[in-house]
Amino acid sequence: MTLGDGRQALVRPVRPEDDAMFRRFFEEVSAEDLRLRFFRAVRDFSHDFIARLVQLDYARSMALVAIARDSGEMLGAVRLLADSDFERGEYGIMVRSDLKGAGLGWRLMQIMIEYAAWLGLSRVQGQVLRENSTMLDMCRRLGFSVRVDPEDSTLMQVTLPVDGRQLSR
Asked: Which of 21, 65, 133, 151 has the fewest Cβ atoms within 10 Å of its own Cβ atom?
């Protein structure tokens, strides 16, 4: 894919050997962006935490990583975890802080939605901090409904019905 800044990126599934790449990626993400993604301040990433990101149960989950063609650097990632009935999937996404506005997050979300449709899921959902206006705006533009989480007013629940039409976008 080509990003808004002209940079070329390759998107592929995450592999167990991507451990070091994820560690370098997190060093390039601001503390504020990490807090918005993980809902708490985080700076140290344990071996176990990184292992959970790169060692997937491919039967129920998929994580895709965007890598710069020229440097091999990780630019962002999106993941989708299907429930045991394959009715719905929960997503998570993170883009390197210096790439905000380059279109990478938008494209990764589209790819994840297409993948959810391919799996036959009926909906994709996620939780977003209420203050994360950039992510909430992108979800709305992608067609997600957005509502306050009934159990935590600092969170918003975002939900997108998925069907085969997403495959033709």
From this structure: 151
pTM: 0.89
Cβ–Cβ < 8 Å for 54, 79: no
Structure confidence by residue, pLDDT tens digits, 102-121: 899 999 999 999 999 999 99
What is the Rg, in whole angstroms, of the alpha carbon atoms belonging to the chain? 15
- The whole-number pLDDT of residue 6 equals 87
Give Cα separations from 63 to 18, 44, 79, 162 (angstroms): 11, 21, 4, 18
Q: What is the pLDDT at residue 169? A: 46
| Residue 47, pLDDT score | 80
Low-confidence ranges of the chain (pLDDT < 50): 168-169
In the sheet where 74-82 sits, what is the strand order? 9-13, 61-68, 74-82, 88-95, 123-129, 152-161, 145-149
SS3 122: coil
Beta carbons of 42 and 34 less than 8 angstroms apart: yes
- Our CA dihedral for 136, 118, 161, 101, rounded to 10 degrees, sits at 20
Collapse the DSSP code of 150 into the 3-class scheme (helix H, G, I; strand E, B; otherwise coil) and give the result.
coil
Residue 75 pLDDT: 96
C-alpha 1/C-alpha 7 separation (Å) is: 8
Q: Is 104 helix (H, G, I), strand (E, B) or coil?
A: helix
